[in-house]
Sequence to fold (254 residues):
Amino acid sequence: MYKEPATQRKRRLERARIKYQEKKANEGSEAKRARLDKNRQAKKKLRAEETPSMKNKRLLQQRENRIKQRDKETPESGEARRQAEHERYLQRAAAENPERRESRKQADHERYLQRCAAQTNQDRGDHLENIRRQWLERSASEIEFEKAINTFCDQFCEVCTKRCYPNQVSILKLSNYKPNYLPIELLQKKQLLLCHRCKTHLSSRKTTAPPKAFWNKLDPGVIPNEIHLLSQAEKRLLSILRPTREYYRFAHVD
Fold:
């Protein structure tokens, strides 16, 4: 009896696979529907004739193949697979009638009980650890989100008195260099909380004060109570409107 070599069998199967894929790519909607119906009937017939041992062997083989495929897939392909599975699930759930939905839920519950009964202590521990890890990841994301939306504009630059968010200010130490144009109350400090613009100006060691410094006659004085009652967004909107003053020098004419 002739025995086909392994390399020849591999080439033959590869050619058959390519031919089958080309045939699937060129088939029409009616041919595709007929092929799927035929495959469905053949699979249903095989499932009806298989013994419990054959079924367990088939499920075990499917599980091993699925694990191998999941190990090889990239994060992008895994996300695409989960998205496609979710869409197929939604389509099936939308098309099923109430009786079929109840039957599906009952079958899902029975499969869940079977998996729980077949689980070892190690498998159950791994499953619970995976659930705990996912819960911690979701909790961390929620905490980060809450932290981000609860960040307020409550920091003030000590030079220009600009209201800033925490990421808009930084500390400048005055241990090595103290500009002589700073007011006495600022010179007595060891470090200053400054906005990026004022910190850049002071770090450059210029001999003039920053143009927005409050002692350049830009101190608004006592803030009215009506301003204090405004929200932060309203105060930020008002801070854009800065009063300006222009001077024109005319030549002396006799």
In short: The chain has a mean pLDDT of 84. The radius of gyration is 37 Å. The chain is about 65% helix and 5% strand.
